[in-house]
């Protein structure tokens, strides 16, 4: 059978290994997964309650107006419901953005190493990709590349803080950069981890209201998968001008998010205790990961997220990750990003201690 | 901001009214929703148990290999895991199919009145739509249209049984039709309601294995939203040749289905008692809807689904639906399909009795 030609250039996404699958494969009993930047404290208790109360309604289609969650987000961010679109993860909002702006005649711009899905989705549109030489976000390079291809570039991705590296630009520099970009170029601020960056350093904090009121070409992306502990439910959102949101709505399939996800997200936004505990644990435990790196002379970038990325010189990240797997610890090997590095999610004190003990042993041996 | 031109031709989907929203609007206490063909008995108890056991894991990303559910379906249908793709509702598999085959230079073929999403998704690809004059599936017309536009038509939709009308073609006629279609034309058998048709009449039963083993260009679609009572969780599947499934996989975003949906679907497949109760209630209650129609001289098509569609001559379906809403009963007005008709989901005996009492009163008055 013949398929549309653009499929020829697409490859299939290879999923990471599932905990249960790994456990079976390696015959280990306890698996510690520090690979996907999930919340190590599980699900907020208010969200669990909401889920338990609503499992009996799983037969009913979701309220496709999503008014309850939109109103809650609108209130939190002081924007209008019309400025918000809910996606099956913020991923899906990235997909809407890409399909609404990119095509085979234009291009997008991103950091040298950043969230892999930008490029994967954009490939579906046959759009050209410009990347900075720098793996982290270097705004001078962004500016130079944008100036050279101003007519061509229709989306600029800024991942703030950046996954999978962890660095984060200051808000003031971001705003200055935005001002230099044409109004017809969509600037996507991927703020999936911004709550972590904001907690650590207020200079990194990005307020959707300020962005979209001043800049009609900015899309702010948030997610419930990280701080809010709902990665399994696939729910995130985009905030932008009504014009942008209306365009995205044309690409949205009805009922794109489950009713349980909607209920859990509303409840999670109210669980301040859970968020506080997550953020405090994250950055106090982050110090231990920095100390560990220093002790073993491992390079790392200062992280504003819920993970830390270790870079290796002589040792091979693939070997190190494989050895960790044998001990039941899953981290993210960054070989597929062209880096000899691994990304480790900051876990609970217990999980991290297990990592330090096992990885210390492996690192000295390998 | 300028968006890709194809967006100009798209309109935004208008969602149906949510139960809670209607309740508030009309100030009615008890709402009976017979509008979306949801399972009136709620969620299978085995699925509820699976959900309750897994709410604590909602922070963890789904197993993106979906091996557990795929294996279960593979076993049920005697096909291979590689013949299966899981979607956020079978809707999403329709989307994959359309994007992989349709473009602005080709066309698709469907019944005069059928599931609205085929046309909505296909519009995104700028593809031409051929419809039969007959509102229900008329295979002679399908054949004639296909013969006249053989080179152009790349997808044929057969909704078996048909939503929103309820009629269903016999398997033998379907197979004969398939044999006359070129191998490069994808035939989509939308079997969302086929369990209902099969229960009523074994001549309507379509077995995915038989279809895909004999015909490499057939895609079978199933859903957990109807018989299996999981409409709110957004989960369905497609079964086809490995070649077709591989093409669709290129368009699938990772983690396109939530972990709770995957767990609930596996459990729902095991809940035979729930399925049996649903099917038996559906067709015994269907008789009452037929009796009611005869009593009031309302036309209907024999239904092989979990709904029945009433057609009106002088009375206006919009007025009738509005009057029912005031009584707290939501049914589906088919005006947007160009029909003076309403689609009513077969509910529980209690719900149906409420419908008969209220609608009887309204019908005589209006």
From TrEMBL, chains A, B:
<dbReference type="InterPro" id="IPR015422">
    <property type="entry name" value="PyrdxlP-dep_Trfase_small"/>
</dbReference>
<dbReference type="InterPro" id="IPR015424">
    <property type="entry name" value="PyrdxlP-dep_Trfase"/>
</dbReference>
<dbReference type="GO" id="GO:0030170">
    <property type="term" value="F:pyridoxal phosphate binding"/>
</dbReference>
<dbReference type="InterPro" id="IPR050106">
    <property type="entry name" value="HistidinolP_aminotransfase"/>
</dbReference>
<dbReference type="GO" id="GO:0000105">
    <property type="term" value="P:L-histidine biosynthetic process"/>
</dbReference>
<dbReference type="Pfam" id="PF00155">
    <property type="entry name" value="Aminotran_1_2"/>
</dbReference>
<keyword id="KW-0028">Amino-acid biosynthesis</keyword>
<keyword id="KW-0368">Histidine biosynthesis</keyword>
<comment type="subunit">
    <text>Homodimer.</text>
</comment>
<dbReference type="InterPro" id="IPR015421">
    <property type="entry name" value="PyrdxlP-dep_Trfase_major"/>
</dbReference>
<feature type="domain" description="Aminotransferase class I/classII large">
    <location>
        <begin position="30"/>
        <end position="355"/>
    </location>
</feature>
<dbReference type="InterPro" id="IPR004839">
    <property type="entry name" value="Aminotransferase_I/II_large"/>
</dbReference>
<comment type="pathway">
    <text>Amino-acid biosynthesis; L-histidine biosynthesis; L-histidine from 5-phospho-alpha-D-ribose 1-diphosphate: step 7/9.</text>
</comment>
<dbReference type="GO" id="GO:0004400">
    <property type="term" value="F:histidinol-phosphate transaminase activity"/>
</dbReference>
<protein>
    <recommendedName>
        <fullName>Histidinol-phosphate aminotransferase</fullName>
        <ecNumber>2.6.1.9</ecNumber>
    </recommendedName>
</protein>
<keyword id="KW-0808">Transferase</keyword>
<keyword id="KW-0032">Aminotransferase</keyword>
<feature type="modified residue" description="N6-(pyridoxal phosphate)lysine">
    <location>
        <position position="226"/>
    </location>
</feature>
<keyword id="KW-0663">Pyridoxal phosphate</keyword>
<dbReference type="InterPro" id="IPR005861">
    <property type="entry name" value="HisP_aminotrans"/>
</dbReference>
<comment type="similarity">
    <text>Belongs to the class-II pyridoxal-phosphate-dependent aminotransferase family. Histidinol-phosphate aminotransferase subfamily.</text>
</comment>
């Amino acid at each position: 059978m013949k398929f549309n030609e653009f499929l020829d250039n697409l490859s299939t996404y290879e999923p990471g290994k599932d905990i249960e699958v790994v456990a079976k494969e390696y015959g280990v009993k306890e698996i510690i997964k520090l690979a996907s930047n999930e919340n190590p404290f599980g699900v907020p208790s208010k969200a669990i309650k909401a889920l338990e109360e609503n499992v009996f309604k799983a037969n009913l289609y979701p309220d496709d107006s999503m008014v309850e969650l939109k109103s809650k987000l609108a209130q939190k961010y002081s924007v209008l419901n019309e400025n918000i679109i809910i996606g099956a993860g913020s991923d899906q909002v990235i997909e809407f953005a890409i399909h609404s702006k990119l095509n085979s005649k234009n291009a997008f711009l991103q950091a040298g190493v950043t969230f892999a899905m930008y490029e994967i989705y954009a490939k579906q549109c046959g759009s050209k990709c410009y990347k900075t030489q720098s793996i982290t976000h270097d705004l001078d390079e962004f500016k130079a590349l944008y100036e050279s291809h101003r007519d061509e570039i229709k989306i600029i991705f800024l991942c703030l803080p950046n996954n999978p590296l962890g660095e984060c630009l200051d808000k003031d520099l971001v705003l200055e950069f935005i001002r230099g970009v044409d109004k017809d170029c969509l600037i996507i601020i991927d703020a999936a981890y911004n709550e972590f960056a904001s907690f650590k350093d207020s200079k990194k904090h990005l307020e959707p209201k300020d962005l979209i009121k001043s800049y009609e070409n900015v899309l702010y992306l948030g997610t419930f998968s990280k701080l809010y502990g709902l990665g399994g439910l696939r729910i995130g959102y985009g905030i932008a001008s009504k014009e942008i949101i209306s365009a995205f709505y044309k690409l949205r399939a009805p009922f794109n998010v489950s009713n349980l996800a909607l209920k859990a997200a509303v409840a999670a936004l109210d669980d301040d205790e859970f968020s506080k505990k997550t953020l405090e644990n994250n950055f106090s435990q982050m110090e231990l990961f920095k100390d560990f790196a220093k002790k073993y002379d491992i390079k790392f970038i200062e992280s504003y997220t819920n993970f830390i990325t270790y870079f290796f010189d002589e040792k091979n990240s693939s070997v190190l990750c494989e050895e960790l797997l044998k001990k039941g610890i899953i981290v993210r090997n960054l070989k597929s990003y062209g880096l000899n590095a691994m990304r480790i999610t900051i876990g609970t004190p217990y999980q991290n201690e297990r990592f330090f003990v096992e990885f210390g042993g492996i690192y000295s041996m390998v």
